[in-house]
Amino acid sequence: MYLETTISTNKDKTKRYPCYLLRETYREGRAVKHRTIANITHCSTQDIAAIKLALSHKTHPREWSALEDADIRTEQGLAFGAVWMLWQIAERLGIRRALGNSRQGKLALWQIIARLIDQGSRLSAVRLAGTHAACDVLGLDGFDEDDLYENLVWLSKQQDQIENKLLAFRYPDKNNRPSLYLYDVTSSYFEGVQNELAHFGYNRDNKKGKKQVVMGLLCDAQGTPVSVQLFPGNTQDTKTFSSQIEKVRKRFHGNDVTFVGDRGMIKGPQKKELEKNNDDDAVLEHFYYISALTKPQIETLLRTDDVDVQLRLFDEPIAEVITDTVRYILRRNPKRVEEIRRTRQEKYAVLEKCAAQKNDYLAHHPRASGDKALNVIRAKARSLKIDSWTDITLTDNKRMLSIQTLEDAVQEIEKLDGCYVLCTNLSTEQASKETIHQRYKDLALVEKAFRTQKLSFLEIRPIYLRKEHRTRGYALVTMLAYSMASYLRTVWAPINKTVPEAIQAIDQLCTCLVSIKHSKTIHQVPAPREDVAALLDLANISLPDISPSKAIVVATKRNLTARRNLP
């Protein structure tokens, strides 16, 4: 006898109808047949769960005799919901398969899951495993923080293979690999010391006096990361680009590939490297680019007689100028024009306020120097970057500061407000100007990935590691965690919860340890509450009735009590 569960849906597949049948098997000659004894769908959820539990232990009558004597004890078990769900998502996205089923692969998967549940160090990941069903779900033996540090080294050494397997999982057909890649770089600062990759460089985090590492992220056209690479902190953006070309050519077997990079990323040397094989008919790979010009480059282009680029073209929705080797796509963003001019006026108001404060000070302090006040206000104008169109002078016997706007200079600056120029070597047959414009806007997907990894709940920064291999492995963990978070953000779009809030809600689902005298302990998974059930349903995750249990205790090697400064 067994309990059979079937799920049916309506035509729109918006409602699910469970059906519970109590059935048994019997034999007629050599054929095994099934018959329904009773339909118990009308029973309550608790009754069905009780029947299911009884049938699963029907061969152990001693357990039920103990129940008759009320010799039963229940207690809270390990946190189960989030670990189980993320483990299933990793399988669905091919991450589990790419990492492999070895101990190192399972440890790497736990580091990814721990990064999504509770962002912290390797020590905190060990302590998290002590309260979560990590070993039970992932099939792990005991481990400590040293094992996780070694696992980061393993991840760094296996990174190429892992990324290759993930790309092959997403694109099984080698002839249908991505034809467009989005690439951008950012930096992440260090709080630790003596990191082998850390150097002083151009800091995008505005953390003065902090060493950093440069991180390059390569995504497909949908914004899904396919590769992450770290560079020393003093590496220029353009110096990171050639390695991405080789990566796509040799590892990803790219053919007729277009790279999309932000302004300043793809310059003359990078364009030549992309185009050097395009003139060779014997080479199958052809590489193209879509990038943008910096403001000084736009100003130079407007002064060039060889290219017919005029300011009036920016008034068109999307204008195009074609030369022998390059296509230029021109556009003015009206919203950006408003933002720039509003910011310009706000900066001017700040300067006027500072000048008014200095004038008040000079009026009440006869011995104060007007020249010093003038130097202070001019320095303020330079810091606000408005000194090119403001004229600050001293009047009234050097006791009054006066600010004048240089209208001609303002009009000259406003000509390029909100203007941007895209450049590409794709022909008009390969892509229209609207397509090129949209592909460049897709770079926002990479910027979103950076924000999630750096500023949002994944928190790749600050980095506290020292060894190069560990730092590279840590970056790969964060990239894979972002892939899972991005997928969950899509499936949970109808729910009014962020990904961290949803994971936290599911993480509250714990197993229930049911201990029966003279028998084994059952790790039962309770039915989730309504909001958690909705999240799991959207993610298409089914919970088991009974959780596997390895009875493994995970604990850190460090004596944290002795390390604390207790009174």
What does this molecule look like?
The chain is of the alpha+beta class and 567 residues long. The protein folds into 4 domains: 1-56, no CATH class; 61-132 and 471-567, no CATH class; 171-333 and 418-466, Transposase Inhibitor Protein From Tn5, Chain A, domain 1, CATH 3.90.350.10; 335-414. Helices cover 43% and strands 20% of the residues. It contains 20 helices and 16 strands. An 8-stranded mixed beta sheet has the order 7-6-5-8-9-14-11-10, sandwiched between helices. It has a 3-stranded antiparallel beta sheet with strand order 1-2-3. Strands 4-15-16 form a 3-stranded antiparallel beta sheet. A hairpin with a 4-residue loop joins β15 (510-516) and β16 (521-524). α6 (122-131) packs across α8 (145-170) and α8 packs across α17 (468-491). The longest helix has 31 residues, at 334-364.
Helix content: 40-55%
In CATH, the homologous superfamily of the largest domain goes by the name Transposase Inhibitor Protein From Tn5, Chain A, domain 1
Strand order of the largest sheet: 7-6-5-8-9-14-11-10
The gross shape turns out to be: elongated
Radius of gyration, in angstroms, nearest whole number:
32 Å
What is the structural class?
alpha+beta
Proportion in β-strands: 15-25%
Spans of at least 5 consecutive residues whose pLDDT stays below 50 are none
Say how many strands there are. 16
